[in-house]
Amino acid sequence: MNSASRVFHLDVGTRPSRQPASPALSGATKRDTHSPGIVAGLLAPHPPHLIYAENHPNNEPRSRGGWEQIRWGYEAVRKRVKEIHKPDVILVHAPHWITAVGHHVNCVENPKGVSVDPIFPHLFRYHYDFKTDVELAEAIVAEGKQQGLTMSAMKHPGMRVDYATIASLHLLNPDWDIPVVSISANNNPYYFADAPLDEMEALGIATRRAIESTGRRAVLAASCSMSHLHWNVEPDLPEDMSFEHAFNDHQHRWDMKFLELVRSGRSDELRRFIPEHIEATAAETKAGSLTWMLSAIGWPRMAGTVHAYGTVIGTGNGLIEWAPEDGGVFHV
Ligand code: 2X7
Ligand code: FE2
Question: Residue 267 belongs to what H/E stretch?
Fold first, then answer.
């Protein structure tokens, strides 16, 4: 890695620990800049194209740009993360860290290496070096077990971190100066057509409890695209935007129905709609990341802010934020 690609490090867990927040009504929020809890939940998609287009020194391939609207949305979210939310930690649940037995949490203190997208290696070969919030990661494992889930603390320092985890984390905080917790996607939903998302609801609750008991203020990122059919060929110049559009009208319409529910704060309907949307559009939310995040913040009856929506190689990508009044935490 060259010197320009080095990342900053912070000591994890050195802040004074905070008392857990008192419980309140579901979805209620309050301005409170000190209580532990979740300060924002994000749908933060990870197409490697977005990193390629940025020409960041951590990523090897070079481009002429592309997918600007989604990338500008990420610029706005980055600013909010740093200036408004100021979290102790960013947690990410990502579909491309696939585990066959249960849910794994990365408990390696300083993951380092090169993450490569196996389908788009010509776009994404990213040098990463970041700090894990190990105390929180281990607390999630323990809370998950309490919820009856099969949990595992991943402690192999050599394990290569998947491109979805790295892409969402880079897009949210390219400085890498906020500690991270990364959670795997159990792939039962891909074996069993009718596997429910209940486990992800339980994992969300476990995550929230771990955040509160360790006194952290956290941003949660569900690293997922929405509609997920994509072309099996790409233009000679991958960033040639004259080729970029929705896979078909059906996919687009279902994504717009999804965004309508988000923008109008109809979370109960959204909860019922997510499995229908998965079925209709092969949505990547099937991996459970979105359900995990929305369960953790308590399915609040509030409008999500759609910072951007755009297609990448035909897939639909919404960059969405749910957050209490600036500075507050979700009380569930
Ligand atoms: O992993 C992905 C994705 N979710 C969407 C679009 C293109 C590539 O990779
Ligand atoms: Fe993906």
Answer: helix 267-281
Number of domains in the chain: 1
**Ligand 1 neighbours by CB, cut-off 6 Å:** 46-48, 164, 225, 230, 284, 312-313, 315
Query: pLDDT band at 8, cuts 50/70/90?
Result: very low
**CATH at 315:** 3.40.830.10
The answer to pTM > 0.85 is yes
14 CA distance to ligand 1 middle (Å) = 36
Hey, whose CA ends up nearest to atom 9 of ligand 1? Answer: 47
Q: What is the DSSP string of 69-136?
A: HHHHHHHHHHHHIIIII--SEEEEEEEEEEESSSEEEE--SS-EEEEE-SS-TTT-EEEEE--B-HHH
Q: Measured in angstroms, how far is the CA atom of residue 177 from the centroid of ligand 2?
A: 24
Residue 182 belongs to a domain:
yes
DSSP, residue by residue, 191-213: HSTT--SHHHHHHHHHHHHHHHH
- Measure the CA–CA gap between 277 and 270, rounded to whole angstroms: 10
Domain membership flag for residue 14: no
For the chain, give the percent of residues with pLDDT over 70: 89
Look over the chain and give the mean of its residue pLDDT values, rounded to a whole number. Answer: 91
Predicted pLDDT of residue 34: 79
User: Does residue 270 lie within any of the structural domains?
Assistant: yes
Residues of the domain holding 231: 25-331
Tokens 């002429």 found at = 64
